TrEMBL record:
Belongs to the alkylbase DNA glycosidase AlkA family. SUPFAM superfamilies: DNA-glycosylase (SSF48150). The keyword DNA damage applies. This is DNA-3-methyladenine glycosylase II.
Length: 299
């Protein structure tokens, strides 16, 4: 069998259109969006698969899977379905978050405006690391340009049905790359070194997604991550928020978060860290979702 269509059940408080709009607004060579769907090439255990996702009706997504270089697509249907569920964070219960946020001065506007938004994840750990390192201390637009250059220099290109798709570079290739070559993309030399360190840590299994999921508390996961050169608390929390799904991940030093809190609270200036801690006290256990909604408010 070369193709398969799967129906994915979604929570009632999930909005495909809101999440699709979020993805459409992000500059990324790794997927293609149109008015009603999103398309991507996945590589599962070395096999290339084309996927297309669209909404059938409220609460149901249709997932089309087509094999590019594989005869029996059934080998990977479950893995592809799980990838999509992870990507759109469909298995997280946000009922209590919404209940809290509707009464919160700093969250109520973003909840109203973007109701149904999920934390659009980055299921691949190495990709999340790279995006986090690239985004350190620079604006989102420039970080997106660097990511695009990185993907198109080291990633794999596939042309399918006349459209160009890219897959994210493998950590193995980057682990063996020379820092001088990475530097040509336009990153600082320090960031090049950090990305190479991360690639080696992933290749050598010094850090894995399952390992990070296994910790009983976020502090342990953060402490494990900051053992890697170039990974500080902000980057650690970002990785745990976007990839590993810690609901209490909270990159409290993020400049974008500070700007969003200022905007949401109609404050005269960005609040200091101590004040942010007080503002965020009601968000306990849902800091990741609060952060993502606030980011969406300004991006």
């Amino acid at each position: 069998m070369k193709s398969k269509q799967v129906i994915i059940e979604c929570p009632n408080d999930f909005s495909f259109s809101v999440n699709l709009e979020y993805l459409r607004n992000q500059e990324d060579a790794l997927y293609i969006t149109d008015k009603n769907s999103i398309k991507k090439i996945l590589v599962i255990e070395g096999d290339k698969l084309f996927i297309r996702i669209w909404e059938v009706k409220k609460g149901q997504l249709s997932l089309e899977i087509k094999a590019i270089d594989l005869e029996n697509i059934n080998l990977h249907v479950e893995k592809v379905t799980n990838y999509v569920r992870d990507w759109f964070d469909l298995d997280t219960n946000v009922t209590h978050f919404y209940h809290m946020a509707r009464k919160d001065k700093f969250l109520k506007d973003s909840i109203t405006k973007f109701y149904g938004l999920r934390i659009i994840g980055i299921p691949d750990l190495f990709e999340t690391f790279v995006w986090a390192v690239l985004g350190q201390q620079i604006n989102l637009v420039f970080a997106s340009k660097l990511k695009d250059r990185f993907i198109k220099k080291y990633g794999e290109r596939t042309v399918y049905n006349g459209e160009e798709y890219w897959n994210f570079p493998s950590p193995k290739e980057i682990a063996s790359e020379d820092v001088d070559e990475l530097f040509k993309i336009g990153m600082s030399r320090r960031k090049c070194e950090y990305i190479k360190e991360v690639a080696m840590a992933v290749v050598n299994r010094k850090i894995t997604k399952n390992m990070l999921k296994s910790f009983s508390d976020i502090e342990s996961a953060v402490n494990k991550l900051i053992e890697i050169k170039g990974i500080g608390p902000w980057t650690a929390h970002y990785v745990l928020l976007r990839c590993v799904r810690y609901s209490d991940a909270f990159p409290i030093n993020d400049v974008g978060l500070h700007n969003a809190i200022k905007l949401a609270g109609n404050l005269e200036e960005k609040p200091p860290i101590d004040k942010i801690r007080k503002i965020a006290a009601p968000w306990k256990g849902y800091e990741a979702y609060a952060t993502f909604y606030l980011w969406r408010l300004i991006y």
